[in-house]
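**Entry details**
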Amino acid sequence: MSDNVAPRTFRQDYIGDGVYTEFDGHGIMLKANDHLDPTDTIYLEPEVLEALIRFAKRMGMMKDE
């Protein structure tokens, strides 16, 4: 396992605007309003996360490395 990847335990964080994240070792869950009882949940597989990052770059929200 790479040093920059979290172990297969769930990692949670609050990223702002009522959005919580959770990493399960493969994808990222975005949870709205409450991490224990969210109103909405979106699961981002790695390919979808990459597409979201490409979109943010095209919109000028992120710079290419």
Observations:
- The two ends are 24 Å apart (CA to CA).
- The chain has a mean pLDDT of 88.
